[in-house]
Structure formats: C-alpha cells, structure tokens
Amino acid sequence: MLKKLERYFKFEERKTSWSIEIRSGLTIYLTMAYILFVNPAILKDAGVPFNACVVGTALAAGITSILMGVITNFPLALAAGMGLNSVLAYSIVLGRGVSWQVGMGLIFLNGLIVFILVLAGVREAVMKAIPAPLRYAIAVGIGMFLAFIGLMHAGVVIVDKNTLLPSPGDFSKISTIVAGCGILITAIFVVLRIKAAILLGIILTGILSYFAGIVQWPGVFKMPDFSSIGALDIPGALKLTLLPSLFAFLIVDFFDTLGTVTAIGYQANLVDSKGNIENLKGILAVDAVGAMLGGFFGASSNTSYIESAAGIMEGGRTGVSAITVGVLFLLSIVIAPIASLISSEATAPALVIIGFLMMQGITNIDFNDLETAIPAFVIILTMPFTYSISHGIGYGFITYTVLKLAKSKYKEVHPIMYAISIIFATYFIMGK
Q1: Range of 397's domain?
Q2: How many angstroms from the chain centroid is the CA of residue 296?
Q3: Contact 106, 249 (CB under 8 A)
Q4: How many beta carbons lie within 10 A of that of residue 84, not counting itself?
Q5: Which of 30, 171, 211, 424 is 20 to 30 A removed from 259 (C-alpha atoms)?
Q6: What is the pLDDT of residues 249-308, one digit of tens each?
Q7: List of residues 6+ apart from 9 with CB closer than 8 A
Q8: Band of pLDDT at residue 177, cut at 50, 70 and 90
Q9: Is residue 11 part of a domain?
C-alpha cells in the first residue's frame, strides 16, 4: 500500500520520503497556525462568532489543503487569506452595512466565478502569457514581501501608524530580542545545512518565547462551535450595489494566487522546460474551490499560502506535505488553543530566511534587457512596499506593456498581457 502511495506521489522522481514530507507539512502548519486566531479576531468585528470562526477556519483550511495534496500532488497549503478577510470585515460588512452572511456569499461567488474561469482555461492561459523574467520577479518580490513581514513580526522593523514609515525596532523589548535571536539561530542552522533547519528554528524560538513570558499556556478548552457553517447569504450578495466589491475580490484573489503558485512552483523546481508549473490547472481549480469552501464555512476566502515555502525549504516536494497540513488543521478543531503557543516571534525567523532563499531567483533576470528588467524591478520593489502581491504584479505588468509599446515592439506582448494591464489600470483608477 505504501509503495503504491509513493508511486502516486512520485517520491522517487522527486527524491523525497515520508519523513521529509511529514516534517515539511508540520513546518508549514506551524508557520500558518496563527490564522486560527487572527482570522476570527478580524471577522469578529464583522459579527462572525469567534469560536465558530475558529472551527470554520480550521475546517476550510484542512479540507482544501488535503484536496490540494491528493488531487494535484503539489506541496501547497491553503487557509483563510489575510488581506481579503480585512476587506470583507471592514470595507464590505462594516463599510457597506451588510451582514456577515452576505459577505460570505460574496466570497462564495468570487470562488465560483474563478472556478469557472479555471475550467474555461482563462486562469491557466494568463499564467502562461506572463514572460519568464516577470515570473522570476514575482517569486523574488514575494520573497522580499515575506522577509518584510518576518522583520515586522520580529519587531526588528516597526511601521509608524502616524507616518506609515518603517523605523528600526526596539531591542529593549524582550520579544524583539527573542525574535532576533531566532533569526540568528535559524540562519546558523541553514548555514550548517542541518536537516529541519526551519522547523528547529521555529521550535527553539517558540521555547524561548514561552520562557520569556511572551506566550502563556492556553486556558480552558471549549467545545467546537459549528454555527457559522452554511450561514452564507448568496441571494443577498447578488445585489448590483455589491458588484464593485465582487470585482475587487476577483482581482486580488486571482492574481495573489498566481503569484503564490509561481513562487512555490519555482522554489520547488516543479516546472517543465518552458517554466510552466506542473498540473497548473488542477492547482488553480482547487484554490478556487477553497474560496467557495471558505465562504461556506464562514471563514472568508481560502487561498494558497506563501508560507508553504517553509515546507519547500525542508525538502517538501509532493502533496503529502499539503495533506499533513490539512490533517493538522482538522485536528486543530479540538486542540486549537495549543496553536496559540506558536507566537509571531517564533515564525518570524522562518519568514526572513525563506525570503532570502527566494531572492536567489533574481539571478535568472537579465538586467541588461531593460524592457523586462525595469518591470521586473517594479514588481520586486512594490510588493513589499505596497504590502500587496496583486498590486506589485499589476504595477509591473502595466510597466512592461507600456515599455514594449514605447519601443514599438507591440507584437512581442501577448494579447492577454494587454488585457491584464487594462484590467489592472481600471482597478487602480477605481481605487478599490
């Protein structure tokens, strides 16, 4: 039985094993576990019951990650998307005065539309229309984005809420010292090429966080609350006044996923000779299903998680990594409080080191070819500075199209790239 599973998941071809894949999945889960509490904390402001949202978040993440692993054999986990949940809570529910059930209906419709686009081949065609240098730039930009998030979680970089400018962290705080030590410890493990370097870094920094009093042992366990499942209001989400909001969800969800899948595929080297990601259509289809399930479970849109890169660093190359993550999320329905022991200080070092490793793709960009090098630079620069994968992609694509037209090389631009640039320009001008 195990041999059949190993053949199905291509263990020999991808030079991996059960221990590597399970370790990879555990590492990914630990970097993602924060979503079990952050997502409900955000959606609570929109009226979603906190305990029910914890259950919905765990269920949606668990089921979609398992589907990704089984169907696509790709080491990519999914969970409620940060950013989209804030838009849902503050811009849609509170901003437009609709119920959270209507908001979940919008999330479901977004997933359904994207799923139809996947079946029609549109999403896959968009992916293949992107020039190779820009694909590498997306992966590098996401690496910068991850490292920036890691530095903020560590307290090494602080963003002033008044000026919105970053400034050096405060190392008189024990949390910053612990996270800083975690970054150095993890870097040492990587340099010494110790197996499970990222996982060990998370665990050791987590232990330091506990003894430093940053995290506390969880309190009383509560019975799971399933009340948010199936509470979405699809008819209410079909109002014409909500169409702009649906369009905004589509743009962000569509291109965030393309960026994440590109980064993970390139990092894991799961691409063909033309740079196309293996089983791309299946990956994008499962991601779209994840959005629908997120709405159904009352957990906001489920999307592909760039934190999956932590598992790639540990050697994960198959769907077993994603399945492991999914099983751990399902178990989290009853043991969720334990996940609270994994603080942001503990996962910050992993994000910083992974960001460094993803930067290596920059060597594949020809900076002498200015027509693609400048757009690539724009993508890399704007992803972390705008705190948005989709905005970075949009700015880079528009720059690429304009520069090609300026050189009268309009035939070198794929028609889909023209369409994407126009869509992004419209989206930016609308200010959504």
Answers
A1: 16-430
A2: 20
A3: yes
A4: 22
A5: 30
A6: 888 788 888 888 988 998 899 988 777 888 899 999 999 999 999 999 999 999 999 889
A7: 21, 73, 318, 319, 320
A8: very high
A9: no
